[in-house]
Amino acid sequence: MISNLAQGVPGFTSNAFLVTGERTVLVDPGNEFDVVARVRDRTDGLDAVVLTHTHPDHVGNLDAVKEAFGVEAWGFDPDQPGVDHAIADGESVRLGDHEYVALHTPGHKNDHLCLHSPEAGVLVGGDLVFAGGGFGRTDLAEGDRRRLVESIDYVLDHVQEGDDLHVGHGPSVDGEARAHVELAAQAARMG
Length: 191
Hints:
- By secondary structure, this protein is an alpha/beta fold.
- It has helices at residues 35-42, 56-59, 62-69, 145-156, 177-190, and strands spanning 2-4, 17-19, 25-27, 48-50, 73-75, 85-86, 92-95, 98-104, 113-117, 122-126, 164-167.
- The chain is globular, with a radius of gyration of 15 Å.
- The termini are far apart.
- The mean pLDDT is 97.
- Residues 13-169 form the Metallo-beta-lactamase domain.
């Protein structure tokens, strides 16, 4: 089961997805809200934190989560503060009851990962793509529109018809991830 713990939070935060099951994982702990209390409301503990990328709105709560639950964080670049273990492009990581393939998708930030599970029919898009064909900013440090377009195309090579989409900001999409990623690819090319 995937729950957005940041739902309804006012303030500067990303979505924070709790994936429960065999391996309970928090994907992006968010920022500026008590995510620890929200995790404790839903489960007894965490097995790990997985990061889509290390912008402050996605990792502001990371230290509090690591301390409260005694867990470590996985992300693409272990040289980034708070990242304890690297997840390489193409590597498999277990979230809940399913295996997800990590897709290195720079363009918004160099350490950006999307996570895709063909088995679960889920794409975790971070800030690469958003519902309705939106795409991540490229005007911040490490932003690069050309690389972002290449990353969206890379995700299109993996996402399947019927997949759900969970994104870093805004609503999730049930069953139509591919269509929204295709729209993002078109929009990013026009900018």
